[in-house]
Design a protein that fits this description.
heterodimer, A: alpha+beta, Ubiquitin-like (UB roll), FAD/NAD(P)-binding domain, Gyrase A, domain 2, 7-stranded mixed sheet, 6-stranded mixed sheet, 19% helix, B: mainly beta
Chain lengths: 944, 87
């Protein structure tokens, strides 16, 4: 319930601004400045969710990122965000939230029946039941289990809010704007050029918010400093090497203003990082400690002072440390009656005015049906391991607990430092810090003047079932019973224990559970806590929406799309585009009403019988300049290059050092010291990298440069028996006759008024000229060719027709036949391996493995019937598996009238003439092995 | 994400670079090496935990190759240099 204004005089809510919101379908009212959690508590909503595994009723237990119970689904429709902590949600007008893991609602949950069988779902339940002999059962039960155990659901609709990314650089980054962070930031502002301060809350102040005096003026001082930037609602989720801090800023959440981005992901580089991340109070572990009404003492104090919310009328405080005095003071100031303070320590300096302190006592159990109504306490034996008789019950509706404090050091998990156990304050503190990272305040273990604590990792259990109701990890429903069972089963390493019990996993990452679990494990297996080590807290500190990580790189902006220089001309010809080799390329050009298959067939026949044009601009192009250019080519390619005359071109293979074909292409000699190399489309980048690697790292004595020019030149290839006729019609300053311009030659001049290089080379098996012009003129040349060739039957053809044309000729494609495991000889290109010179990959070609007679070899397959052979299908001879049909090589050849394919099969060349079986899922085919060159083996069509 | 020192362009983010693994100290003569020694030189690396030298290329920048010493456990960077000074 809400506390009167005079009892929480420094509260940060604005009572003049009521805010309406809906939780689980009911309408409530809070105030500006509330979180969803404080507003629910103000409305006496005690049960806010059900636990992950056992469906036990749960209430709010914390006030910030440590909250382990109150996960809600925020928003509706596409903007839904599941599993958000109610303590981290700023209350805004019209906010809608639902509890997770409940049906039909948190108060009445039918899944709670699982809780009665809690003993049946202990640590390792999944492993024991569904792995090994029982694994078949998983498939049957998975969908029921997934429905019963789980959290919120991701929305199905597309979230069309904007998510952005920003980069920032600063001298000093302060994480946390509590008293310690503010102090550090003010000090830094005096001496550094730029200071950035982050805090996950809506306003700066941290633990001092709602308290008198401590930070008065500090925030204003920072805001007025020109070299300081303060980002609120911003959570640092990870600290990586070289002080890269990734943070998420929540911007316009819950607002309808679509001009604002919903969240921003910040990537901050800081010279120095100051962690002022504070500390999180530890819960105490006792029977029924998950009952709504049991909460962290500091959280109940924060609700009272900062939000003017009383979490109960009559409280019992339970502690093992002196820090509780501060919380007690706050609760009393807010008018909450404190029935007693139960202190597990036999003696302590704790002596608040007028409050009974029961020293040497512990909690036997919390009692109540759906929330706390009384607490049962008893004196402890001096070692704290057992209760003495003389139990006593105290009426209360709030049990505020403090088991000590854990400095918040999650950000050190990625290498900026380690943690070590500090027994004097019973927690882990920073150790072995990077010299550019500092930890200050409570995060550094400064827990207050004269702070004293004695560990009480768990209360004794009374009764057989009690350990299974002593919750260590509220978020994952892990109890003392689970942990003891795991220890008995020898899961003694903390890393194993975590995975076996799921303790400290998921959203929570052990914020309130991991140290208690270590303490309990240390007692269970009788090893000192400091020797156990800890699990590493992994980023993100709190969950991050995938949308924030993706930012604007979604949909069309996911990856850049490259269009060919003649893209507009292709559009005009009705091209159907698809991405291939990193470019949007025309696949085929269907006429009105024409099927895809008919279009491809028409394009193939036009190239074989008349003339076609294809855009090969995507082919990689590299200029090689320098007196040693020929030496470079000789070393890069497996075949000989020294003898290539100026004006001529040659096809070559490049091998990796292990002797496998990795790229191919035609390279032409333009002058003594100048070559134009072409590569595959996909290899355009890697080949340049490859050349640079060798030139810079191994052959520094070579006087040669390699310059990528792929994007500078368009390459429109005119192919077919009428190609020469067509090209001759364009205004041209070169002689196209076979004598003057033979196959595998290059000429420079002008074509249709454009500076051009024409390379006569053929991938289709037809007479073919690749006309290269400056990329900006591609459309102009394309249109000129279409215009000039109209009566010759000029036909644009795309990637699909090219695949058939090359398969008919058995021309290899890098990535298909040359799949990284095939040598030149495997591909039937052994003649392209020089015996005279050294080249990259040469030594590997004589490794024993490369000489095996049963290596995969390229062959052709001809189907016995009219069905297209399955690409990727397995090729068999009887029962022995020979290899596979090369994907995308299989087609119905319009010229041959048969279904053909290329295949890589063991010892393939010796099998030519034999029959094989080809299988794929759902089909079986018979085929004969033939030469991979189906058409024109003497290349008569090319040399015309 | 690492920031690496390009010898020409200065400190740049890792996404601009390509890594080619550790600088191999094995040098074999392909003409005389046995199959085993050749395969070992080609494929096997020390894969040390701690400081080692590795190759990087400022691939999306000036295309310069360089070596740098990096601790494989902590990502701490130390000396670097141009090709030719790596061994």
């Amino acid at each position: 319930m809400r506390i009167a204004a005079d009892q929480a005089p420094f509260a940060r809510i604005d009572r003049s601004r009521p805010v309406r919101f809906v939780f689980d379908g009911r309408s409530y009212e809070g105030f500006a400045g509330d979180t969803l959690a404080s507003a629910l508590l103000a409305n006496d909503v005690r049960v806010v969710g059900r636990s992950f595994k056992l469906h036990r009723a749960r209430g709010i237990m914390g006030q910030g990122a440590e909250e382990a119970n109150a996960l809600v689904t925020l928003g509706e429709g596409a903007a839904t965000e599941p599993n958000v902590r109610a303590t981290m949600i700023e209350l805004t007008d019209g906010l809608v939230a639902r509890s997770v893991n409940t049906w039909p609602s948190a108060r009445v949950d039918l899944g709670a029946v699982v809780g009665w069988f809690g003993l049946l779902l202990p640590a390792g339940f999944y492993y024991k039941t569904f792995m090994g002999p029982g694994q078949g059962a998983w498939h049957i039960y998975e969908r029921f289990i997934r429905r019963a155990a789980g959290l919120g659901h991701a929305p199905r609709a597309t979230d069309d809010r904007r998510y952005d990314k920003r980069h920032a650089h600063c001298d000093v980054l302060v994480v946390g704007a509590g008293p310690a962070g503010l102090t550090a930031a003010i000090a830094a502002a005096d001496t550094c050029n730029s200071v950035l301060v982050l805090d996950e809350q809506t306003e700066a102040g941290g633990s001092a918010l709602g308290m008198p005096d401590r930070i008065v003026g500090m925030v204003d001082r920072l805001r007025s400093a020109p070299n300081v930037r303060v980002l609120m609602r911003t959570t640092a989720i990870g600290l990586y090497e070289q002080n890269l801090v990734v943070a998420v800023e929540r911007m316009g959440d819950n607002t309808a203003d679509i001009r604002l981005s919903a969240q921003r992901l910040w990537k901050i580089r800081a010279e120095r990082v100051v962690l002022a991340t504070g500390a999180i109070e530890r819960p105490l572990v006792f029977d029924g400690n998950d009952l709504p009404g049991v909460m962290l003492a500091s959280a109940s104090a924060t609700y009272a002072m900062r939000y003017a919310v009383a979490c109960g009328r009559r409280a019992v405080l339970v502690t093992n440390n002196d820090g509780i005095a501060k919380s007690a003071e706050s609760l009393r100031m807010a008018g909450i009656e404190i029935a007693a303070i139960v202190d597990t320590r036999p003696s302590s300096a704790l002596a608040p005015d007028g409050i009974e302190v029961l020293r040497g006592h512990g909690v036997v159990r919390a009692r109540g049906r759906s929330s706390v109504t009384e607490v049962e306490i008893a004196p402890l034996t001096p070692d704290g391991k057992q209760f003495l008789p003389r139990r006593r019950r105290i009426d209360c509706d709030l049990i505020a607990v403090s088991g000590g404090w854990n400095p918040t050091l999650h950000l050190l998990g990625n290498g900026a430092g380690r943690t070590r156990y500090a027994p004097e304050i019973a927690c882990f503190i920073a150790d072995d810090l990077s010299p550019t990272v500092a930890v200050v305040g409570a995060a550094a273990g400064e827990l207050g003047e004269g702070y004293s604590v004695r560990p009480a990792w768990r209360m004794p259990a009374v009764g057989r079932g009690a350990p299974w109701r002593q919750f260590i990890d509220l978020h994952n429903d892990v109890t003392v019973g689970d942990l003891a069972l795991a220890a008995r089963e020898n899961y003694r390493s903390v890393e194993h224990l975590k995975r076996y019990t799921t303790m400290g996993m998921a959203h929570d990452q052990g914020k309130t559970s991991s140290v208690n679990a270590l303490g309990i494990l240390s007692e269970a297996i009788d090893r000192p806590l400091a020797a156990l080590g800890t699990t590493r807290a992994r980023p993100p500190y709190t969950p991050v929406a995938f949308a924030a990580v993706a930012g604007r790189q979604i949909g069309a902006l996911y990856a850049p799309k490259r269009e060919l220089p003649a893209h507009v001309a292709h559009l005009g010809c009705g091209a159907v585009f698809a991405e291939s080799g990193g470019w949007m390329r025309p696949m085929h050009y269907p006429l009105a009403g024409e099927s895809t298959a008919d279009a491809i067939r028409r394009e193939v026949l036009a190239v074989r019988n008349a003339v076609g044009i294809v855009d090969n601009s995507a082919l990689g192009k590299v200029e090689i300049h320098g007196p040693d250019a020929a030496i470079l080519l000789d070393r890069l390619y497996s075949n000989d290059w020294g003898s290539l005359a100026v004006g001529r071109a040659r096809y070559g293979l490049m091998l990796t050092e292990d002797g496998m074909v990795f790229d191919d292409g035609v390279t032409a000699r333009l002058s003594d010291t100048h070559y134009l190399m072409t590569t595959t489309s996909a290899g355009a980048g890697t080949v340049v990298d490859w050349i640079e690697l060798w030139l810079q790292r191994a052959w520094r004595d070579l006087r040669v440069f390699a310059t990528p020019v792929t994007h500078h030149w368009a390459d429109l290839t005119i192919a077919g028996p009428r190609a020469r006729d067509l090209l001759g019609r364009l205004s041209l300053d070169m002689d196209l006759s076979p004598e003057a311009f033979p196959h595998l030659a290059i000429r420079e001049g002008t074509v249709a008024g454009l500076p051009a290089r024409i390379l006569r080379a053929s991938f289709t098996g037809e007479l073919s000229f690749e006309v290269m012009v400056p990329a900006r003129s591609a459309d102009q040349l394309y249109n000129a060719v279409m215009e000039a060739g109209r009566d010759l039957g000029i036909t644009p053809f795309g990637v699909d027709a090219t695949l058939i044309l090359r398969a008919e000729k058995g021309h290899i494609l890098i990535g298909l036949e040359a799949d990284g495991t095939t040598t030149p000889d495997d591909l039937g290109l052994g003649r392209l391996v020089s015996r005279k010179k050294d080249f990259i990959g040469r030594r590997s070609l004589t490794l024993a493995d490369r000489l095996r007679p049963d290596r995969p070899q390229l062959v052709g397959l001809q189907s016995d019937d009219d069905r297209v052979l399955p690409g990727g299908g397995v090729v068999w001879s009887g029962d022995s598996k020979l290899g596979h049909v090369v994907p995308m090589s299989s087609c119905r050849s319009p010229v041959l009238g048969r279904c053909i394919a290329l295949a890589l099969i063991a010892g393939g060349r010796d099998r030519i003439g034999s029959a094989v079986t080809v299988t794929a899922i759902g089909s079986q085919h018979r085929a004969s092995v033939v030469s991979p060159v189906f058409l024109d083996p003497k290349n008569g069509r090319i040399y015309v | 994400m690492l920031i690496l020192p390009c010898p020409w362009c200065g400190p740049r983010e890792e996404t601009e670079f390509a890594c080619d693994g550790e600088v191999s100290s094995v040098s074999v003569d392909p003409a005389t090496a046995s199959d085993g020694a050749w395969a070992d030189a080609l494929h096997n690396r020390t894969n040390r935990k701690g400081m080692h030298r590795e190759w990087w290329c400022h691939r999306r920048g000036c295309r310069q190759w360089f070596w740098i010493e990096r601790d494989t456990a902590t990502n701490q960077l130390r000396n670097s240099g141009l090709p030719g000074t790596e061994s």
